[in-house]
Amino acid sequence: MPTAPHIAQRASRRLLTGLVFGALFFTGARLSAAMPVAAPPGTVIIPAGVYVPLQRTLKDPEQFDVAAFALDKFAVTNAQFLAFVVANPKWRRSQVAHLFADSSYLTHWSGDTDLGPRAPVDAPVILISWFAARAYARWVGQRLPTTAEWELAASAGYTSPDGKNDEQLNRDIYAWLARPTPDVLPQVTTARANYHGVRGLHGLIWEWVGDFNTAMVTGESRADSGLNRDLFCGSGSVGTKDTSDYAAFMRTALRSSLQANNTTSSLGFRCAQDLLH
After folding, report:
1. Stretch 245-273: mean pLDDT, rounded?
2. Domain parsing of the chain, residue ranges
3. Which CATH number fits domain 43-274: 3.10.560.10, 3.90.1580.10, 1.25.40.10, 3.10.20.30?
4. Neighbour count for residue 213 (Cβ, 10 Å)
5. Predicted TM-score of the model (pTM)
6. Are 43 and 276 in contact (CB under 8 A)?
């Protein structure tokens, strides 16, 4: 029969063991929480930040907190979208419903599953509707970035997280805005990476965002009662946070003019996803 000293020793050993395992558990939990989340393949992590809209209504906050997220390094290419339409015939040019894409959808391809000379495999896919972009993103297990996420990522310069005073970036943006869209787009890898490692947010194509239809301009004409007239003519800068950000005006105007089935020769997309902790 164990004596009282033996029982005390066993209890002490159990207590010590429990304390050691408890310390290891909580230390491991703290280390795990502190460890950075790895970016999924083909993406980079955009750190959490604040998005200040170009314009806002009285109902909107002055700024939006944006959680960290993963964003594709490159825009989706013709080759990637080709794999999608091969696997999903309803999104082929000859079969897509007009409700989901207008008559210009993928017209730069030579055929339903033939890219042809105007659509190099590594060039960004264009003439894509929002419906098609969203379907592709879901197919690969991702989503379209929100406006706030896209703008936060695009606000970085080439060498710093804030590109507002990046002279080279601003020169590149305005030079691109002044050039006509080429008939054949360059490869996505040719675009210069920004501070986060994302390529082509500026100077390659325009890009769909998931909530494009929540832009300040909500109507299709100036007679629309839901229209924010502040984006038109001389009043365009009223209530604007940065009246010098012409590129942001252009993006807002473009998003506001689009319908979900529209396609254009300079509009593509990239994907985003939430981070798993």
Report:
1. 92
2. 1-35, 43-274
3. 3.90.1580.10
4. 14
5. 0.78
6. no
Q: What is the pLDDT of residues 98-131, one digit of tens each?
A: 999 999 999 999 999 999 999 999 999 999 999 9
The confidence band for 56, taking pLDDT boundaries of 50, 70 and 90, is low
Q: Does the pLDDT at position 159 exceed 50?
A: yes
Closest residue by Cα to residue 188 from 273, 244, 68, 268 = 268
Distance of CA 106 to the CA centre of its chain: 21
3-class secondary structure, 45 = strand
pLDDT in tens, 173-222: 999 999 999 999 999 999 999 999 999 999 999 999 999 987 544 333 33
Quick one: how far is CA 98 from the chain centroid? 26
- How many angstroms separate the CA atoms of 185 and 108, rounded? 11
- Vertex 245: Cα angle to 144 and 67 (nearest 5): 35
Distance CA 236, CA 221 (A): 15
Encode pLDDT of 239-252 as tens digits: 445 546 778 888 98
Which residues touch 191 (CB under 8 Å, ≥6 apart)? 74, 199, 200, 203, 204
| 3-class state of residue 180 by DSSP | coil
What is the 8-class DSSP label of residue 193? B
Cβ atoms of 189 and 227 closer than 8 Å:
no
